[in-house]
Amino acid sequence: MWVNRLLKTLDNGTIRLVTQPDHAEVSGYMAAHWGNEEFSKLGYFDDSSEPEHLAAETIFGIAEHDNGWWEWEASPPVSASDKLPKGLAEVLSIPEQAAQRWRIGIRRFEENHPYASLLINFHAYRLYNKIHEEESSIHPLFGDSKSISNENSPQATSLIETLRNQQDKLKEQLDSLGGWHKDAIRPEILLPHARMMQILDALSLYLCSDFIPPVSGKAKGLGRDEVELKHIPRKNWEDKVKLHITPQDDGTLVCDPYPFDENNLVVPIVVTEIENFSQNEVSLMEVYRIPKKIVSFTFQRLK
Question: What tens digit of pLDDT does each residue of 204-214 get?
Fold first, then answer.
């Protein structure tokens, strides 16, 4: 049995492990700090009767977008290649396992948090249906490519149909609730929030892993690559910009333009590091003996 870890990155003989819940929490943290004089805060992309309630629900959805992995991570299978828990890429290569995670995660909060559930649904739908999506809805994970393995698998086809049906039911539920819930399903509000789910997920993955493609060369990961994120809603859905991030040697990340409400925003990440890693299975006891670390990055404005 293994402690739950899913994002794993090898760096000069050291493996850095970040849980899916910790990664998602980082997304939610940045979502809560998103917005300034140039960028709209979440909940404020268009008129709503209660924008603060809308913002809180959107941030909740972003922070919990990977909740479907909770049970799987409690006791994940060990990878044959490195004797560590299977990483995200390994799990996604098994369509039935990945699809089941989304089915569980979208349903978990649909009664009390229907809008958050709708955003999580859109997140999954666009991952699986991306070959049919507009460029502005493609997750930064995929760079400029629309290809995806297993996209035509029976499991993926079934999941896409399930997600479409869930979208209709969740929109009906939100419409019947009225007020800000009804406001939230208008395209002027829903589309930028669904895109921000992708962008904030990508920003967290950029810090926690090596999954986000760099501007050039091979990804080093862990906030060390120069990256560009496209189609980010600024004031509203029609107003989109590119975000360019340039890493410095001290963990500082220069953002142009700068989207956060605090200058020099510090983003802490909980990690477990296994130094001098060899491909011998590491016991649960050994992992529990390793103290967790807080690794921090600082976002700065371009000077």
Answer: 999 999 999 99
